[in-house]
Write a structure and sequence with these properties.
Layout: H1 3-37, E1 49-55, E2 70-76, E3 99-100, E4 115-116, H2 123-127, E5 133-138, E6 154-165, E7 168-185, E8 202-207, H3 209-221, E9 223-228, E10 249-250, E11 254-256, H4 257-260, E12 279-284, E13 287-292, E14 297-298, E15 315-319
C-alpha cells in the first residue's frame, strides 16, 4: 500500500471523528435548549373546604333522628348552598330528636326544611304512625336512666305500687308495657362549660289507644319507671317485631317484695271455699233435725220456713210425730 492511500485513510478517519464529535455536541446543546424552554406548571391551590352536617345512616320519612345518624363531612366552600348546616354555627345535638319529613340517603347533607324540630307545630303528627297515640308520662333522673333516654329509643314501662292483703301492706313492681317507642324527651343537650345536663321531666311514648288508658291509670296507681332496651339484643325482641315498625306489648312479669327481702313473709294463699256437704233434714212436727252424710247429728233448729235456705244437695223428710 503506498503512502498516499495511508494518508487519505487517516484524513478520512480524522474527518469522520470530528464530524461525529461536533454532531454529538450539537445534539446535546439542542436538548439543553429544549429542556430550558419547558416550564413546569404550578399545582392549583386546593379549594377551601368547610365541615357540613350530613346523614351517616339512611333515614326514612317519619323516622326520629339520633346522635349516631349524623356526622360532619368536608365540603368545597365554593359550591356550598346556603341551606347546608356548617360546623361552628350549629351542633349535632341541635337536631337530635327531630323527625325526617322525607327520606335521606347516606352522605346526603341535612337541610332544616326537610326535618321537623321537636316542639314545633306538627311534630307529633309527623312522627306518629297511623292508628297510634301519643301519651306523656312523668320522668326523672331515677325513673328515666339518668337522662340517657333519647327520642327514638325503645323502653319498658314499670309500675311500682302498694298492695293491701290480710297480712298487711306489701309492695310490688310489674312490667305493664314492653318495647314502647319514645317519640319525645324534653331534655336539653346543649352544654356550657361547668353546666350540668337538664334531665327530662316528661317522656312521650307512642302507644295504642288501649295502652294509653293503661299508662294513664298506672300514673295514678303508683310510680312509673322507664327501662332502656338494647338495640342489639335480638333475643329480647322475639315476637315483638323489629325496627321502627314494632309496637309496644303488654308486660307479663312482676316482682313481689317477698322476692326482694327474705325478712318479709309471703302472704298466705287464700283458702279455697269448703264444698257443701249433702245433708238430710228430718222434720217431726215443728221440730227439725239435720243429718249429714257422715252420720253426725246437729241440734234441732227452727222449721225450714224460718231457717236459712238449704244448700244444694239437701233433702227434707217429714215423719209422723207419733212414731218414735
Amino acid at each position: 500500500m503506498n503512502s498516499k492511500r495511508i494518508v487519505f485513510l487517516l484524513l478520512a478517519v480524522i474527518v469522520a471523528g470530528t464530524t461525529a464529535f461536533l454532531a454529538r455536541a450539537w445534539l446535546q446543546a439542542e436538548r439543553a435548549a429544549m429542556a430550558a424552554q419547558i416550564v413546569v406548571a404550578p399545582k392549583p391551590a386546593a379549594a377551601p373546604s368547610v365541615q357540613v352536617l350530613v346523614v351517616r345512616n339512611a333515614l326514612r320519612t317519619g323516622q326520629l333522628i339520633k346522635p349516631e345518624d349524623l356526622r360532619w363531612q368536608a365540603w368545597p366552600q365554593g359550591a356550598l348552598p346556603q341551606t347546608y348546616i356548617i360546623e361552628g354555627k350549629r351542633q349535632i345535638s341541635d337536631f337530635v330528636g327531630a323527625v325526617a319529613r322525607t327520606s335521606f340517603h347516606v352522605g346526603q347533607p341535612l337541610i332544616e326544611t326537610d326535618i321537623v324540630m321537636p316542639g314545633s307545630r306538627g311534630f307529633l303528627a309527623a312522627v306518629l304512625r297511623p292508628g297510634l297515640r301519643a301519651v306523656s308520662v312523668p320522668a326523672s333522673a331515677t325513673t328515666a336512666v339518668s337522662g340517657f333516654i333519647y327520642a327514638g329509643d325503645r323502653v319498658d314501662v314499670l309500675l311500682t305500687h302498694k298492695l293491701n292483703s290480710p297480712e298487711g301492706q306489701h309492695s310490688a313492681t310489674e312490667t305493664i308495657l314492653r318495647n314502647a317507642r319514645v317519640i319525645a324527651m324534653d331534655q336539653k343537650l346543649d352544654f356550657a362549660p361547668g353546666d350540668k345536663p337538664d334531665v327530662a321531666k316528661t317522656a312521650t311514648l307512642e302507644l295504642t289507644a288501649k295502652q294509653t288508658e293503661i299508662v294513664t291509670l298506672a300514673v295514678k296507681m303508683g310510680d312509673l319507671s322507664l327501662v332502656l332496651r338494647s338495640l342489639q339484643d335480638e333475643d329480647e325482641r322475639d315476637g315483638e317485631g323489629s325496627g321502627e315498625d314494632a309496637t309496644a306489648e303488654l308486660g307479663q312479669s312482676y316482682t313481689h317484695d317477698t322476692q326482694v327481702s327474705r325478712l318479709i313473709k309471703e302472704p298466705a294463699p287464700p283458702k279455697p271455699p269448703e264444698a257443701a256437704k249433702p245433708t238430710i233434714f228430718v222434720l217431726r212436727g215443728s221440730g227439725r233435725t239435720k243429718l249429714e252424710l257422715d252420720g253426725s247429728t246437729l241440734p234441732d233448729g227452727p222449721p225450714p220456713a224460718e231457717a236459712e235456705k238449704p244448700n244444694k244437695g239437701t233433702t227434707f223428710t217429714r215423719t209422723n210425730p207419733s212414731v218414735q
